[in-house]
Fold this sequence. Notes:
Elements: H1 3-11, H2 14-36, H3 41-58, H4 60-74, H5 80-125, E1 128-132, H6 135-141, E2 147-150, E3 153-157, E4 159-162, E5 165-168, H7 175-185, E6 189-191, H8 198-210, E7 216-220, H9 223-238, E8 244-246, H10 255-262, E9 265-269, H11 270-280, E10 296-300, H12 302-308, E11 313-319, H13 325-358, H14 362-376, H15 381-387, H16 392-409, H17 413-419, E12 424-427, E13 432-435, H18 437-447, H19 458-467, H20 472-505, E14 512-515, E15 518-521, H21 539-546, E16 555-562, H22 563-567, E17 572-577, H23 584-591, E18 595-597, E19 607-608, E20 612-614, H24 617-633, E21 638-642, H25 645-657, E22 663-665, H26 673-679, E23 686-690, H27 703-708, E24 711-715, H28 722-729, E25 739-746, H29 750-755, H30 758-766, H31 778-825, H32 829-848, H33 853-864, H34 872-877, H35 880-917, E26 923-929, E27 934-940, H36 941-946, H37 950-982, H38 993-1022, E28 1024-1025, E29 1038-1039, E30 1051-1053
Parallel strand pairs: 6-17, 6-18, 7-9, 7-10, 8-9, 10-17, 19-25, 20-25, 21-23, 21-24, 22-23, 24-25
Antiparallel strand pairs: 1-3, 2-3, 4-5, 11-16, 11-30, 12-13, 14-15, 26-27, 26-28, 26-29
Helix pairs in contact: 2-5, 2-7, 3-5, 4-5, 5-8, 7-8, 8-9, 13-14, 13-20, 13-21, 14-16, 19-20, 20-21, 31-37, 31-38, 32-35, 32-38, 37-38
Amino acid sequence: MGLSDIIKKLFGSKSERDLKQLKPILNNIHNAYSRIDALSDDDLRNESAAIRAKVLDYVAVEEAKVVSIREQLEDVEIAVSEKEKLATELDLLIKEIDTKLEDILNQVLPETFAIVKSTARRFKDNPVIRVKATQFDRDLSTTHDFVTIKGDIAEWKNSWIAGGNMITWDMVHYDVQLYGGAVLHAGKIAEMATGEGKTLVATLPVFLNALAGKGVHVVTVNDYLSKRDSEWMGPLYMFHGLSVDCIDKHQPNSDARKRAYNADITFGTNNEFGFDYLRDNMALNPDDLVQRKHHFAIVDEVDSVLIDDARTPLIISGPVQRSGDQTFIEYKPYVQRLYNEQRTFVNQTLNEAKKLIAAGEIKDKGEILLLRAHKGLPKYAPLIKYLSEPGIKQILQDVQSKIIKAAFTEKDIEQRIVTNDLFFVIDEHQRSVELTDKGNEVLAKAVGDADFFLMPRLGDELSKIDQMDIPTEEKRQKKDELYSNYSLKAERMHTVDQLLKAYSMFEKDVDYVVIDNKVKIVDESTGRIMEGRRWSDGLHQAVEAKENVKVEAATQTFATITLQNYFRMYHKLSGMTGTAETEAGEFWSIYKLDVVVIPTNRPIIRDDQDDLIYKTKKAKYNAVIEHIGELVKEKRPVLVGTTSVEISEYLSRLLKLHGIDHQVLNAKQHAREAEVVLHAGKPGTVTIATNMAGRGTDIKISDEVKEAGGLAIIGTERHDSRRVDRQLRGRAGRQGDPGSSIFYVSLEDDLMRIFGSDRISKVVDSMGMQEEEALQASMLSNAIERAQKKVEENNFGTRKRLVDYDDVMNSQREVVYTKRRSALTGERIDVDVLNMISDYCEMFADSNRHLTYDLFSEELMKVLSIFPDFDEASYERFNKAQLTEQLQQSVQNVMQRRFDTLIEQTWPVISHVYDTKRMFYQNIQIPVSDGKMVYGILVDLRKAYESKGKELIRAVQKTITLRVIDEYWKNHLRDMDDLKQAVQHAAYEQKDPILVYKGESFELFIKVLEGISRDVLAFLLRSFLFLRNDQQPQEVATEGHTKKTDLSGMRESRPDLLTNSSEPQSNAPARAEKKVGRNDPCPCGSGKKYKNCHGKNQ
Length: 1098
C-alpha cells in the first residue's frame, strides 16, 4: 500500500470529502421539497415570485445608489473632482452588490432547487398544467405553442418543439443531479459521467442565479446545442416568469440579439459570446452595445472550451495592404529540396546504423547513427519499423540518456556530434524544427548569397557602430539599416521555419485535410474539421504553399481575445463535463476552478479491460479486425475509435476486405454525424469514428443489445490525453447499461515512440515476443497512462507559456477597453481627460526638463499648441513635481478657455435649431476641427440646449477619444503580432523570448498610451467650430443619425459552427416560435386581432 493509499484510507478521497460537504445542502433541499411539492401549481409560482422579490429586496438600497450615482455622472454641471469620487464609489458598490447577491442566493438555494425539481415533476406527470394567466403567459402564448390562454387560465403543455423535434418532458432530478447543481452554483466544475443528464443539472443553478436579474449565460460548443437546449429547458424557466433566449438565433449587432442578452437566461456558443464582446468594443454608439455585465456563466463541455480551445484567439480582422504571402511560395522550392535531401540522408544513415548494429558495433557508432536518423526524421516509416524490432528501441533510449547527461558535462559536444551532419533537427516533444549550420549553408548556396539567412549579432554590431568616429546622424542611419536588415532576415528565417514544420511535422489527413482547394484543420481531440480556423504565425500559409493551394492573403487584426481571457472576466464561472479530473491542476492554476467528481445515479458496470500491446501496427490492426468480427457475431454494436482520418479510412478498407458491413464517421463525413450515431447502437452495427464520437455523443441501445452485452468500445490507439480516451470509454455503460472497452496499442504508435517507458520495451524484448502476439497486464496499462501523463505535462507547459504571452496582451486590452468603454458611455469622460492631462504632463516634464525654457516652450507649442503660464525664472526654480503641476494647470486653463470659446461659437447654432426644429431632430451634427481634421460631432439636441452647450464638449471629448484609441489600438495589435514573431529569435542571443517580449511590449504600450493622451489633448486644445467661407453659424448644424460600426469588410476567425452534435435532427425548422396570422385573434386572450395587439410592431 502506497503513501497516497494510506492518506486516502485515513482522510478519504477528495471526491468523498467534497460529497461530505454537500450532504447538508442535499438534506435541506429534501426538507424544502416535501413542503413545496405539496403546493398547488399557482402557489408554486407565487413561491418562486416571492423568492425573487426577496433576492432583489436584499440589494435594493445599493441598486438605488448605483442608479443615483450614474445619473450624477451624466450631469455636466458637476465638478470633475467630485465625479472622480463618484466613479470610485460606483465601483465599490458594484462589488458589494455581487457579494450580497451570493449571500442571499445561498440562503434561498434549498427552496429554489426544490421549486425546479417540483416543476420538472409536474411537467412529467401532467400533460397539461392549468394556472392563473399572467401578462408574461399572455405574451408567451403569441410566440410559443406550449402555452394557450383560455380566459383567465393559462394552459401549459408538457410537449414542445426542441431542436426541430417534438419532445415530451420526462425527467425529474436525481439526488446526484442536485449535488451537481450545488457544485455549479458554487463556481466549480462538476464532472458527471455520460448519460447522467448534465443539461438537466444546469437548470438548478441557472434558475437560482437568474433570480438576481443580472443575466445567466449558458455556454455550449455549437449552435445546434445552444438552440436546442434553450428550447428544451426553456419552459421550466418560463413557467416561473423568467425570460429565455438564444443569441445564435439572431444576427450579430441586431436589436434582437441585444434583447437576447437582456433576457434572464441567455444561451449561446462560446465563440459568439466572445465575438459579441469584441464587437461591443468596436461600437461607436452606446445603443449598439449588446452585452451587459459578465455576471455568471455555466460552460458545457468545459474542458473542450477552457482547455482545448482556450488559447486559440477569436479575431476580427480586415484586409491589409502589406503582405509577405508570396515569400512562402518563393522559398518553398528551397525548403522542399532541403527536406528531400534530409530524407535521403536519413535513409542512408539508418541503413548504415542497421549494418553496424547487426555487426555488434553498437557503442559510439551504430547508436549515434540511429539517434541521428531519429533526430532527422522521427516519423520516417522505415525507422519506426526498425525500432519495433527486439532491443532496438532500448539502444535508442540508452544513447538518448547518455546525450542528456553529456549536455550538462561537456557543453553539448555530444549533441553536436549527432546533429552536425543533419540539415535540420526535429524535436517531437516540443513540436519544433531547428535549422542547422549545414542546412543554412545549403539554403544560402541555393539562393546565391552566403549571408542570406545569417542573423546579425545585434549587440556586437551596435557596439561597433557606437565606436565609429562618424557623425551622430550617420550612426543613427547605420543603426536603422542594421535593424532593417535584422528584421528582414528574421522574417526570412520565420518563413523557412514554418515551411520546415509544414513538411516535417504536419501530415495530410492527420493534422489537416484539403477540401475544395483549401487547407482545413482537423481537431486532434475531436477529429472534426475546424471551419474558418487557421494556424497562426504563418504556419497555415506554409501548409497551403506545401499543398499547392492558394496562399490566403494576410489580414490585420482589429480586435482579438482568447476564450481563456474572455471567460475569466465573469464574476462567477462554472462548468460541466464528463472528463475534467485529469486536467484539474490546469483548471485551478488558470481559472481557480475546483473540479468535483459527482457519483453516478446507477453503478457503472462497463467492463474496462487492460490494453492489448502489439509490436507492430500491422499486427494490432489485424487483431482489431478479428475482434470486431467476433463481436458482430454476438450481435453487439461496436464503436471503433481512431485518432485520425487516415487510420479510420485504412480500417474501413480492411473491414471491406473481410466483408464486414460498417459505417465511417470522420472529418470528411462530419455532415452525416447525426445519421451515423442514430444507427450506432443497433445490433451488429460497426461504426468507425475519429475522436469526434467521444464528446457530446449519446449512443442509446435496446434491450436486445443489453442482453447481448451492450455497446463494445474498441480504441485503436491511445490518445496523447487520458481525457480523450475516457471520453471514448464513456460512450458505453451509460445509466448502468452493460458494455465493454479495450484499447489496442502498438510500439509503433506515436505515444509509445515518443513517451513510452523503457520498461515496456524491456519486457517485450525479454519475452521474445512474436509480431502477432500481444501483451495484456494492468502494469503495462498503467505504464501507458504514465506516458500519457508525460504528454499532458508537456502540453500544459506549452499552454502555460502561451498564457504568459496572452496575459501580457490581455492586461493591455483591459486598460484600452476600459478607456474605450468610458469614452463610449461618457460617464467618466471628464475624469479620463483629466487623467490624460496629468499623465501626459508628467511624461512631458520628465522627458524635456533638461531643455532651456525657450526650447521647452517651443516643444510644448509644437506638440499641444499652448504656451506655459509660468515665466523663465519660475521654470528654473521648479523641481520636477512642481513643473508637472504647473504644466497641468496651464493645459487645464487653455483647455477651459478653448471649451468656453467653442460653446460661445455653437450656442447660437444649438438654440436656433432647438427653437425651430426640436420637433423633428433628436440629434444634431456639428462640425468641429483642430485645423487638420474635421469631425461631425453628434450631440443630443435636448441635452445640449438644457446644458447651455456643455453637452457638446462632452460629445467632442467622447468622439475624439474613441477615434484616437481605435486607431492606436489597431496599429498596436499589428506591432504586437510582429513583436511576438521577432522575439522568437532572441534565443539565438541566449535570451528568454518571453522576457524580451514582456519588456518590449511594455515599452510599446507606454508609447501607445502617451500617443493617445497627446493626440486627444492636442485636438481638444485646438478645437473650433468649422465654418466654410460662405456659411453662417446658424446653417452649420444638420440632423444627426447614429451610425453602427461597419463590419462588412471584416472577417471573423472562429471554429466550425455547423452542428457537431450527434443528436438526431429532423427537417423541421430549428426555431420553435409560433406563427399567427395578422387577422387572427391574438393568442393572448385580449379579444383583439393579432395585428392590433402583439403583432402591432411586426
